[in-house]
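Justification of resources, computational component.

The compute hours requested in this renewal are based largely on the per-chain cost of generating structure records like the one below. Each record pairs the submitted sequence with a full structure-token output. That output is archived, and it is also reused by downstream analysis tasks.
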Amino acid sequence: MSVVIPAYNEQNNVAAVYEAVRESLAGCEPCEIIFIDDGSTDATAERVRGLRTRDRAVRLIRFGRNFGQQSALLAGLEAARGAAVITLDCDLQHPPELIPRMVQAWRNGAPVVQMIRTQTEGAGFFKKLSSRIFYRFVNMLSETPVVSGAADYQLLDRAVVDAVLQFRDRYPFLRGLVGWLGFPAIRIEYVAPARYRGASGYTLRKMLRLSLQAVIGLSSKPLRFSFYFGLLTAIFCVLYAAFSIVGLAAGRNVQGWTSVIVMVTFLGAVQLVSLGIVGEYIARIYEQSRGVPRYVILETDEAGVAREVHQAKN
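The structure output for this chain reads:
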């Protein structure tokens, strides 16, 4: 059994998360707990090294800089050696005490155990609203629906992990990739407690970027929407041109200044939005063609020895 925990500036949470996970895994030997330090600027890596001195089941993977939670999760999946892999955040908002239920569902034959957050204790209005908009936006434009409330708290069988690792996306979206594979999934609902300590690293900008990453990485619908929107706009323009011609033929003056300005502005906006959508897809193709690594590992633990590896994962 492997547990993958991405961490970014979580020095105050590492020990508490470790203790909670270790207690939950008491009957799941052998096991390993992999912390991925996603370019933290605090003492996160030092705290994990301290845990490793007394528990060799703890492993550390440290990035050279912040590559993002999704890349950290993929690095953990690639390093995991267990027959099943559990992923959870390093803030105790993914309750480790539910791990035994996840493991039991897996042992009963479920290749995917997806945890579904029904609510978050202490979450403000903006947090609830942004989360609701995120799932609505992704499901509206994606060809692979994501269950509302699903987070990166899940258990994946080794077969699922191996299938996920076949994807070489520069900007992966793990929840979407797992859903796209189509493995049978068991869902378990939970109430997320308030964050244990510290502030969340998921800013509004990062959430917007993740939304765009999820949609573009899982679907080509935005391209088709821009085409249909442009087609409807063209039809509207033809109808308006016909109206103007008929009016002129009938000897009526067609007031055109305001309507022309509105039409030109509208068409310009449609063109810019369409170009932006196309540009995002082209940018992804460009970065994929360059072979840019998803992350760079600065330090890892292999065979009980921490060493500098300076290796890039494609």
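Confidence is low (pLDDT under 50) at residues 303-314. Residues 257-290 form the longest helix (34 residues).
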